Structure formats: C-alpha cells, structure tokens
Amino acid sequence: MIPITVGICAYNEEANIERTLRSLFSQERGVYSVDSVIVVSSGSTDRTDSIVESMIPEFPRIRLIRQEKREGKNSAINLILKEKGTEIVVLLNADNILGSPDSLNRLIEPFSDPKVGMVGGHPVPVNDTDTVAGFTSHLVWTMHHHVSQMSPKIGELMAFRDIGKGLPTDMQSDEDILRMDLEQAGYRSVYAKGALVLNRGPENLRDFFKQRVRVNIGELYMKKCFRYQIPTHDYRKLYAAILQSIKDVGFHPFKLTIAVLMELVTRLYALAYVKADKGDMSVWDRVDSTKIV
After folding, report:
1. CA-to-CA distance for 136 and 139, rounded, in angstroms?
2. Could you give the 3-state DSSP secondary structure of residue 68?
3. Residue 174 lies in domain
4. What stretches of 46-125 show up as alpha helix (H) in DSSP?
5. pLDDT tens digits, residue range 17-52?
6. For the chain, how many structural domains are there in total?
7. What pLDDT is stored for residue 293 in this prediction?
C-alpha cells in the first residue's frame, strides 16, 4: 500500500466541491491508502468552506485550510506540501471528478517503480461536441492525450513525489515546474491514460480565448525562465497529434477551422505578452463557463 495525500485547491467552488470530494472517496481501494485530503480554500466568499466542513464528520480525513485572500494556485500547493504527511501527493482540481472507479489506482500504480517521480492522468471533457466551443475543448484535450503518449504532458490530475522543493508563487505552471524539478533530480514522468478525470472546458469562444491565453502565457514563461520545453509546444508532436485527434473527434471543417484559428491566435497573443514581459498570471480570473455543474 502506497500512502498518499490528496490536495485540492479551491476558490468559490460551492457548485462543485462536494461532488469532487465524493468522487474521490468513492474510488476503489487497491495499491494506495489515503492519509489525508487537504482542501485549501483561497479567499472563497461563497459556501465552499461550509460545505467542506459539513463533510468532515462523514469523511474525517478531510482537512480544510483557509487562506484569507487569493495568492495563486502555487501558494495553495505550497501549503499542501507543508501540511502533508506522505511522500506521494495527488493534486485534483476542485471542479473535476474522477472518471472511473479505478482512476486513482491507475494514477498511483506507477510509483511502485522508485524512479517514477510524476504521473499524469487523462483529462476527458464533458462538453457537448455539437457546439463550436465544445468541439474545440474536445479537440484540445484529445491532442493533449496523444501528445502525452509521446511525452507526458501533466495536467488536471497528477501525482508526484515531494522532494522538498516548493513552487515559485509568482508563476502559474505548477505541474510543469514540479515535473522539471523531478526530472532534473533523476526521476521520470509517466502518463496513465487509464486514470480518467472529467473536466468541463469553456462553453463559449470568449472563455476559451481567456483560458488558453493564460495557459500559453504560463507555458511560455517556463521556456523563458528555465529554457524548459513543454511537450505541447513541440510542433512536431503537435502535428502528429492533431492528425490522430481529427480521426477521434471527427472531421468537421467549420468547427475544426475555428478551433485551429482560436488556438493559433491565443498562442500568438501569449507570445507577444511574454516578449513584452508583462509578468506571469499567478492569480487569474475565473473562467465561469467551466464551472457549470
């Protein structure tokens, strides 16, 4: 049995936090044991805190840590690392749910190899592909899946060994920084495609632009500050991935054209932003359409 700590960073997640926690506690037992589930609520002004507190009698391993104001996800993760009691830490987003009964087992199994430092799960969007924004979300995450099979791109659900290095609080790319530190320490990263996690992408193109600009800015700052290449910015891998992704999601010329143009525009906007050195988005605005239950 591999003991784990599960960390959840939350900001105004009253619509999702109970569902997320229940999906965690409904997982099949196997190779892991849960030492604690630490929820860091960063400046929440809704019912997030009271919902988490109401669940503690039913699930005593839950711990709630409040931050008086939002200081960014990396700051919340640093609190989890300070308070956890295990080497292996799982990070689950507060608006996601585990997509199969054995997702957590699939995520933790690779740590039986002592040289594995990080494992990423397989994000699957729940958006309706009939809409342009929904199709775009599915295309992006399907590409993410195919790139990850070539070179793991960790995101949405991950587990890692804590080697005692905290995260810079002026940056946003938590999973990429953790992966970089672990690989530099001699560990390898693994993609667990069977560790499904369900997420909701933006429901309109305005929110898609907002989210993808922020993500691309963070990844470009990784390259600028550390000369670290993110797998999804390797255009040889992207070319192979998009061909397979089109086969998976279907060839819809209009929606495909919009999706590719939107991603291209967000990358060009992010590139100009980083070249102007306007600073990484360590604390970002919510993308509200991703919070629909």
Report:
1. 5
2. coil
3. 2-291
4. 48-55, 73-83, 103-108
5. 999 999 999 999 899 999 999 999 999 999 999 999
6. 1
7. 59
